[in-house]
Specification:
The structure holds two protein chains of two kinds. By secondary structure, chain A is an all-alpha fold. Chain A folds into two domains: 28 residues; 219 residues, MetI-like fold. Chain A is built from twelve helices and two strands; from the N terminus they run αββααααααααααα. The N and C termini of chain A lie far apart (61 Å). Chain B has two domains: 227 residues, P-loop containing nucleotide triphosphate hydrolases (Rossmann fold, 3-Layer(aba) Sandwich); 115 residues, Nucleic acid-binding proteins (OB fold (Dihydrolipoamide Acetyltransferase, E2P)). In chain B, β9 and β10 form a beta hairpin. Chain B is elongated, with a radius of gyration of 24 Å. The chains are: A mainly alpha, B alpha+beta. At the A-B interface, α8 and α9 of A face β6 and α2 of B.
C-alpha cells in the first residue's frame, strides 16, 4: 500500500466555473495592490479637481469671497475678453516656440547620443540630468544674474562689439529659461526612441539610394515620431502653465497664463475666474495627452 | 566575361583589428558568387565594402570598371538584402518595395507599377498593403528581395539572407534564389557561413578565414581539392590525418604508416591528408590488397542518420569517420567489430596547413 502524504491537499477538478472563480480572485488581488494608488489619486487629484470645477461655475462676491450659489458660465465667458485672450495666445505662442526650439536642439543631440558607445552614452546622459540636482528656482535665479544688468551675458556681447543686450524681463528671456529648464524632457524620450531604431534600417535606406536628408525624412523621423510626440508634450504642457520662469525672468510686461491664474486667486481674489482658467488650461493639456496616447502611446 | 566587381589589395581595419586582409577578388558578371567562412572571417565586411556601407582602409574596389572605393552607398548601382531583412516597419510592402525608386525620383505611377510587378515576381501578390510585422519570415525575405531587385541593380548583395529561416524553408529558398538569379541574369554576391548552402547555390565560392582569402573556386574544386587544411576541414566533413611527404606518391603518417597520396609538395613537407567519410568503404577485416590505401581498426561508435550510417573506426593512434549509405547490399557492422577501411587513391587530397 502507498504511504499517505503528510498534507492532504484538496485538489479541485478544473471546471469552467473554477476557472472563472480563479480569475475573479486574481483580479481582486490586483485591485488590492493598486488600492493605495487609487486612494492617493482620489484624495489628492479627483476631489481637488472637483472643487476647482465647482468653483469655476460659482460667483465672486463683493468681498472677494466666493458664493457657492447662483451657478453660471460668466467666468468661462470672460476668457473671450481681449486681455485674457492676449495672455492665452501669448502663453500658447511661447509654449509652442519653446517646444520647437527644444526639438531642434534636442534631436541632433539625441541622435548623436544614440550613436555613441554605451559608456560615453551613460556619461552624457548623466550630464543631461545634472541640472536636476539643483533646485529649479535657484537655477532660474542664476539665469537672472547671467542675463541681468552688467551680467556675464551683457559683458560678452559688449566685448564682441555687439552692443548691450537687455534680455532680462523680456519674452526672449522667458523662452530661454523655459528651453533651458525643459530641454532634458525633450532629449530623454527622443533618445529612447532613436536608440531603439535598428541602425540597419538607415543603412537600407542609404543602400536604396536615399541621401542623408531623404533617409532622415523617410526613415529616421517617422520611426522616432513617438519620441518626438512624447518630448513635445512633456515640454509643451509645463511650458504652457509655467509660473516660476516667467515670474523670475519675464517681468511685469509679459504676463503668462500661469502667473495670471495665480493673480486671480491671490491678488484679484476672483476664485471662480481663476478656477475657470485652470480648467481651460487643463483641457488643453488633456487634449495634448490624448493626442499623444493616440499617436505613439506605446513608448514611455 | 566582364568583371562585375573587382577588389585589388583590399584591406579593412577597425582600429587595430584587421577585418579584411589584402584581398584580391574578381566577381564575374552573371555569376552566383558566395563568400563563405566562419563568423568573424571578414566576409560580411567585404560585402559591406562592395555595398559602400564601409570604406576600405587600403586598396581599390571597382564595379563594372568604375572605381567606387569611397563612393556613398546611395550612389552605387548595387543593392543589398540585409541579414534581418531591415524592412521599414512603418511602411507597407508596396512602399517598402518602392522605396528605392521613390528615392531616385521615379514617377509615382511608374514606381507603383514596377513595385507591383516585382511583388508578383516574388509571389506576394495580394499582400502589398501589409506591414512587415504582419508577415512570416519567409514572406519578409521575399519583400527584401523584391525591394532590392526592383531597382535593377548591376549586382545584388545578400548578407546571410536565409539564416533566420527554418531548414525546410531555407532549402526551398535556396533553389528559388538560384532560379531567380538565372532569370534576372545579374551577379549575386552571397555571404554565408553555411558550407552546404554555398555548395548548393554557387557558381564559385570564396572561402575566407581571419580576413584572408583562402581559395576561390567552383564548389567541386573546393570540395575535391581544398587549397589547405582549413578549407578541407571547413567544407563538408572530413578526416584529417597529419603526416610528412616522403615523395610525390606517398605520405608517412605521424605513427609511421605510409599512405599513397599524390601530392606536389617537396619531400619532407608537413602536410595533412584529407579523406572524405563518404569516399571510404568499410569491410570485415581481411588482409588488404593494397595496404597503402587502407587501415585496419575497430568500430568504436555508430551514428544512424536514416539515409546512412557513420562509423567511428578506432585505430591504434586515431579514429576516423566512415560514412556508408543505408543500402541493403552493404553490410552493417556493430561496435567492436574488427574492420578494414579502404579507399580509392583519388579519394585523398593532400593539404598544407
Amino acid at each position: 500500500m502507498r504511504k499517505r502524504k503528510h498534507t492532504d491537499h484538496v485538489v479541485e477538478v478544473a471546471t469552467p466555473e473554477f476557472e472563472k472563480a480563479a480569475q475573479k480572485k486574481e483580479s481582486r488581488r490586483g485591485l488590492l495592490m493598486a488600492l493605495p494608488s487609487y486612494l492617493y489619486l482620489i484624495l489628492f487629484f479627483v476631489i481637488p479637481l472637483g472643487i476647482v470645477l465647482i468653483y469655476s461655475f460659482a460667483t465672486r462676491n463683493r468681498f472677494g469671497g466666493t458664493d457657492l450659489s447662483g451657478w453660471n458660465l460668466e467666468s468661462y465667458e470672460r476668457i473671450a475678453e481681449p486681455i485674457v485672450r492676449t495672455i492665452l495666445f501669448r502663453s500658447l505662442w511661447l509654449a509652442i516656440l519653446t517646444t520647437v526650439i527644444c526639438l531642434v536642439i534636442a534631436y541632433p543631440f539625441a541622435y548623436y547620443l544614440s550613436t555613441r558607445k554605451p559608456t560615453i552614452r551613460n556619461v552624457m546622459l548623466v550630464f543631461v540630468m545634472i541640472p536636476f540636482w539643483t533646485n529649479f528656482l535657484v537655477r532660474n535665479y542664476a539665469w537672472r544674474v547671467i542675463l541681468g544688468n552688467d551680467g556675464p551675458f551683457t559683458k560678452v556681447t559688449e566685448f564682441f562689439g555687439l552692443g548691450t543686450h537687455e534680455l532680462l524681463f523680456s519674452q526672449k528671456a522667458v523662452v530661454l529659461g523655459l528651453v533651458y529648464g525643459y530641454l532634458p524632457f525633450m532629449i530623454l524620450p527622443l533618445y529612447a526612441a532613436i536608440e531603439r531604431i535598428d541602425g540597419q534600417l538607415l543603412e537600407a535606406s542609404r543602400d536604396l539610394y536615399g541621401n542623408g536628408w531623404q533617409s532622415f525624412k523617410n526613415v529616421l523621423l517617422p520611426l522616432s515620431m513617438p519620441g518626438v510626440i512624447a518630448g513635445s508634450i512633456l515640454v509643451f504642457v509645463p511650458s504652457l502653465g509655467a509660473y516660476v520662469t516667467p515670474e523670475i525672468l519675464g517681468g511685469a510686461k509679459t504676463t503668462l497664463l500661469g502667473s495670471y491664474i495665480v493673480t486671480q486667486f491671490l491678488t484679484a481674489r476672483n476664485w471662480p475666474f481663476g478656477a475657470a482658467l485652470s480648467f481651460v488650461l487643463m483641457a488643453v493639456m488633456l487634449l495634448m495627452t490624448i493626442i499623444y496616447f493616440r499617436k505613439g502611446g506605446r513608448t514611455l | 566575361m566582364t568583371a562585375a566587381v573587382e577588389l585589388r589589395g583590399i584591406t579593412k581595419k577597425f582600429g587595430d583589428v584587421i577585418a579584411v586582409d589584402n584581398v584580391d577578388l574578381t566577381i564575374q558578371d552573371g555569376e552566383f558568387f558566395s563568400l563563405l567562412g566562419p563568423s568573424g572571417c571578414g566576409k560580411t565586411t567585404t560585402l559591406r565594402m562592395i555595398a559602400g556601407l564601409e570604406f576600405p582602409t587600403e586598396g581599390s574596389l571597382s564595379i563594372f570598371g568604375e572605381e567606387v572605393g569611397t563612393l556613398a552607398p546611395n550612389k552605387r548601382s548595387v543593392n543589398t538584402v540585409f541579414q534581418n531583412y531591415a524592412l521599414f516597419p512603418h511602411l507597407t510592402v508596396l512602399d517598402n518595395v518602392g522605396f528605392g525608386l521613390k528615392m531616385q525620383g521615379v514617377a509615382k505611377k511608374e514606381t507603383k507599377e514596377r513595385s507591383m510587378e516585382m511583388i508578383e515576381l516574388v509571389q506576394l501578390a495580394g499582400l502589398e498593403t501589409r506591414k512587415p510585422s504582419q508577415m512570416s519570415g519567409g514572406q519578409q525575405q521575399r519583400v527584401a528581395l523584391a525591394r532590392a531587385l526592383v531597382n535593377q541593380p548591376k549586382v545584388l548583395l545578400l548578407d546571410e539572407p536565409l539564416g533566420a529561416l527554418d531548414l525546410k524553408l531555407r532549402q526551398e529558398m535556396q533553389l528559388e534564389l538560384k532560379k531567380l538569379q538565372r532569370d534576372v541574369g545579374i551577379s549575386f554576391v552571397f555571404v554565408t557561413h553555411d558550407q552546404e548552402e554555398a555548395l548548393t547555390m554557387s557558381d564559385r565560392i570564396a572561402v575566407m578565414h581571419e580576413g584572408k582569402l583562402l581559395q576561390v573556386a567552383s564548389p567541386e574544386e573546393i570540395y575535391e581539392s581544398p587549397a589547405n587544411r582549413f578549407v578541407a576541414d571547413f567544407i563538408g566533413r572530413t578526416n584529417l590525418l597529419d603526416g610528412t611527404t616522403s615523395d610525390n606518391e606517398t605520405v608517412v603518417l605521424s605513427n609511421g604508416t605510409s599512405i599513397r597520396a599524390q601530392n606536389t609538395f617537396p619531400e619532407g613537407t608537413k602536410v595533412s591528408i584529407s579523406i572524405r567519410p563518404e569516399r571510404t568503404e568499410i569491410t570485415q577485416r581481411s588482409e588488404p590488397s593494397d595496404s597503402l590505401s587502407s587501415i585496419q581498426g575497430t568500430v568504436e561508435t555508430i551514428t544512424y542518420l536514416g539515409n546512412a550510417r557513420v562509423y567511428g573506426v578506432k585505430f591504434t593512434w586515431l579514429s576516423i569517420e566512415v560514412r556508408e549509405e543505408n543500402r541493403p547490399d552493404l553490410e552493417v557492422f556493430n561496435v567492436g567489430d574488427d574492420v578494414t577501411v579502404h579507399w580509392e587513391h583519388d579519394a585523398i587530397s593532400v593539404v598544407k596547413d
